[in-house]
Amino acid sequence: MSGSLRARPGVGGGRYAETVELTWSTVAGPVGDITVVASGTGVRRVAFAGPDLALAEFPSAEPGGLADEATGQLGEYFSGERREFRLAIDWTELDGLRAHVLRTLQELVPFGETVSYKRLAELSGRPAASRAVGSIMGSNPVPLIVPCHRVLASGGGLGGFGPGLEAKRKLLVLVSCVGSWFCNCRVRGWASLVGRRRLS
Question: Is the entire prediction scored with pTM above 0.70?
Answer without folding.
Answer: yes
